[in-house]
């Protein structure tokens, strides 16, 4: 019955693309953070999180994403999200995350945007 | 000439249909509860995005209660209702009741991301999210516990 979030990572040069699949709660958030920090520590400049297969992100999960955002900002990097459901998009905007991380409709748009800022 | 009726069959004005569910305070039980929201939302023909908003509000109410209520019976008592106002507006309502220690919700600070930066506490968004996603939210709390009653119109 577990809704544990699965994360897969693709590296494209200095951009790390993380795909999530499932509920992002504390465990899902921690797993994203672990993978994201590993990518930053191995030279990733930008992180793109594709949430196409996630329909719920709770506030604990978002609080962990904010910690990831802080770490990315500390390193002068970029964090972008794509394929958010309208509810997740709305929640990110409610919490102000959209002010600091970019949100795109598609993965291609996100990748193009972070590449342009390289 | 036939006329399409978009109201939910069997839902009389001011009539209410209700489902009750008790969940244990345990990881991911909040996701189990969201299945009821999805089923009732689909029954009344609510759009998927609005159903998702109710599901997230329920998740936030449950995890708040799991973490902070100090509930004595280690359970949350949930009630899901669909109804229609006299003028025809249909609604989906979720009640989350815990038998914990209660809290003064008027003293809950509205969080801000700027305050969260720099190693500060990044939690405390639950009530703000619930209030932003739902059309009406009523919170009553006392030594008997806390009741959050939240409603979303179709």
Quickly describe the structure.
Chain A is an alpha/beta fold and 118 residues long. Chain A has one domain (6-116): Transcription Regulator spoIIAA (2-Layer Sandwich).
**Percentage of residues in helical conformation of chain A:** 40-55%
Report how far apart the termini of chain B are.
26 Å
How many strands, what sense, and barrel or not for the largest sheet of chain A?
5 strands, mixed
Number of strands of chain A: 5
Supply the number of structural domains of chain B.
1
Mean pLDDT of chain A: 94
Within CATH, the superfamily of chain B carries the name: Histidine kinase-like ATPase, C-terminal domain
Kindly name the structural category of chain B: alpha+beta
Question: From the coordinates shown, what is the CATH architecture of chain B?
Answer: 2-Layer Sandwich
Q: How much helix, percentage-wise, in residues of chain B? A: 25-40%
Q: In DSSP terms, counting alpha (H) and pi (I) runs of 4 or more, how many helices of chain A?
A: 4
SSE pattern of chain A, N- to C-terminal: EEHEHEHEH
**Oligomeric state of the chains in view:** heterodimer
Strands across the major sheet of chain B, in which order? 1-2-3-5-4
Rg of chain B from C-alpha positions? 17 Å
The total of beta strands of chain B comes to 5
Largest interface: A-B, 27 and 28 residues
Q: For this structure, what is the CATH class of chain B? A: Alpha Beta
Q: What is the tally of helical segments of chain B?
A: 4
| CATH topology grouping of chain A | Transcription Regulator spoIIAA
**Domain count of chain A:** 1
